[in-house]
C-alpha cells in the first residue's frame, strides 16, 4: 500500500477514517465503543485535538477534527494505538486491528464543514442500520440536535453556529438540514477530493500546494504528490467535456467550469477570465452543477467519464 501524503499545520481540519483489518469489526460491543470514545476525549486533553463530529460504525469510524497544534500524526497514533492495545488485550488477540494507515483528508472547513457533518451523521442511515440518525447512539448527531447534553470534549457549537447564533434555532435547522437527505441519493462531498488528500476550492488547493508541500523534500513517488504536481489546462478540459457532451454547448460550458474549479488547481480569477465571469460567479456556478450532480445520475456518470479521461 502506497504511503499517504500527510499535510500537517496548526489549525488544519481533517476528515479521518480508519477501517478494520480484512474489513473485520473493530467494535464488538458497547464497552468497546465507550472505550474508543474515551480515547477521543484523551486526545483532546493530551494533544489539544478538537473533535467536531464522530460516527462509530461496526468495522470503521469517521472523525471530523481540528488540530490547533498541527499534530495529526501524534493524535492518531494515540487514538488507534491505544485502542488497538486495549482491544487486543480484552479480546485475547494479537496483530493489527486496523487496515493499514488511517485515511486523512485535509478539509477547507468553512466550505465543507456542514456537508461533511451531514455525510458522517447519515452513515448509519445509508448502511440500513437505522431509519433516522437520531436513533443511532454512536454518533455525535444526538448532541447536535439536543437529544443529549454534549460531553465537554465535543465541539458541536462550531458547526451549529453556521445555522444560527441561537442554540435552539441552530439545532432545529441542523436537524432539518440532515433529514432532508434521508432517503434520496445525493453526491458525497468526498467525491470532490483532490489527489485523495485535499477537499476544498481550487484556491485552497493551490494555497496548500504553495505553503505546505515542499516537492524537494517530499517523496516524489507518492501518488498524491504526483497528482498535485500535474495540472490540467482549461483548454484540455473544454476539449474532453465537449467530446462527452457533444452539441449541448450550454451544459458543456457549465460542466467545463465545474471541472476547472474542482480539479484544475487554477485560481478563481484565471477560470473566471476564461469564462467571462467574476470569481464569485465561478464558485456559484460550480456549486449549482455540484447540486445537480447529486440528483442527476446520468450527468454524474458523464462527469465521472470526463474525470477518468483526465485521470482525476
End-to-end Cα distance, whole Å, is: 20 Å
Radius of gyration computed on alpha carbons: 20 Å
Helix/strand-derived category reads alpha+beta
Number of helices: 14
User: How would you spell out the order of helices and strands?
Assistant: EHEEHEHHHHHEHHHHHHH
Helix content: 40-55%
Description:
By secondary structure, the chain is α+β, with helices and mostly antiparallel strands. The protein has two domains: 12-179, Transposase IS200-like (Alpha-Beta Plaits, 2-Layer Sandwich); 231-312, Chromosomal Replication Initiator Protein Dnaa, Chain: A (Orthogonal Bundle). Helices cover 51% and strands 10% of the residues. The chain contains 14 helices and five strands. It has helices spanning 30-47, 72-90, 109-121, 123-126, 141-144, 157-160, 167-179, 202-212, 223-229, 234-245, 249-263, 268-275, 279-295, 297-309; strands at residues 12-19, 50-56, 60-67, 103-107, 198-199. A hairpin with a 3-residue loop joins strand 2 (50-56) and strand 3 (60-67). Helix 1 (30-47) runs antiparallel to helix 2 (72-90) and helix 10 (234-245) crosses helix 14. The longest helix is centred in the first third of the chain and has 19 residues, at 72-90. The protein starts with 11 loop residues before the first strand and ends with a helix. Mean pLDDT is 88; it is low at 215-223.
Amino acid at each position: 500500500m502506497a504511503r499517504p501524503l500527510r499535510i500537517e499545520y496548526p489549525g488544519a481540519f481533517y476528515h479521518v477514517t480508519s477501517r478494520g483489518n480484512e474489513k473485520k469489526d473493530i467494535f464488538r460491543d458497547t464497552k468497546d465503543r465507550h472505550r474508543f470514545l474515551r480515547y477521543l476525549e484523551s486526545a483532546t486533553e493530551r494533544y489539544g485535538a478538537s473533535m467536531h463530529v464522530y460516527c462509530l460504525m461496526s468495522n470503521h469510524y469517521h472523525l471530523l477534527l481540528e488540530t490547533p497544534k498541527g499534530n495529526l500524526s501524534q493524535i492518531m497514533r494515540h487514538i488507534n494505538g491505544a485502542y488497538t492495545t486495549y482491544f487486543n488485550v480484552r479480546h485475547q488477540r494479537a496483530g493489527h486491528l486496523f487496515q493499514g494507515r488511517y485515511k486523512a483528508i485535509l478539509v477547507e472547513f468553512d466550505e465543507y464543514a456542514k456537508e461533511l457533518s451531514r455525510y458522517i451523521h447519515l452513515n448509519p442511515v445509508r448502511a440500513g442500520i437505522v431509519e433516522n440518525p437520531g436513533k443511532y447512539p454512536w454518533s455525535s448527531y444526538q448532541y447536535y440536535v439536543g437529544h443529549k447534553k454534549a460531553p465537554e470534549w465535543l465541539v458541536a457549537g462550531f458547526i451549529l453556529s453556521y445555522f444560527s447564533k441561537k442554540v435552539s434555532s441552530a439545532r432545529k435547522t441542523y436537524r432539518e438540514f440532515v433529514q432532508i437527505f434521508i432517503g434520496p441519493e445525493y453526491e458525497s462531498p468526498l467525491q470532490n477530493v483532490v489527489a485523495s488528500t485535499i477537499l476544498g476550492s481550487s484556491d485552497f488547493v493551490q494555497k496548500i500546494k504553495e505553503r505546505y508541500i515542499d516537492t524537494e523534500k517530499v517523496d516524489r513517488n507518492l501518488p498524491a504528490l504526483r497528482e498535485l504536481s500535474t495540472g490540467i489546462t482549461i483548454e484540455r478540459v473544454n476539449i474532453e467535456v465537449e467530446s462527452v457532451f457533444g452539441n449541448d454547448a450550454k451544459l458543456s460550458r457549465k460542466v467545463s467550469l465545474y471541472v476547472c474549479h474542482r480539479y484544475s488547481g487554477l485560481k478563481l480569477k484565471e477560470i473566471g477570465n476564461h469564462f467571462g465571469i467574476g470569481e464569485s460567479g465561478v464558485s456559484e456556478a460550480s456549486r449549482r452543477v455540484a447540486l445537480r450532480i447529486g440528483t442527476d445520475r446520468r450527468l454524474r456518470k458523464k462527469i465521472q467519464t470526463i474525470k477518468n479521461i483526465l485521470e482525476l
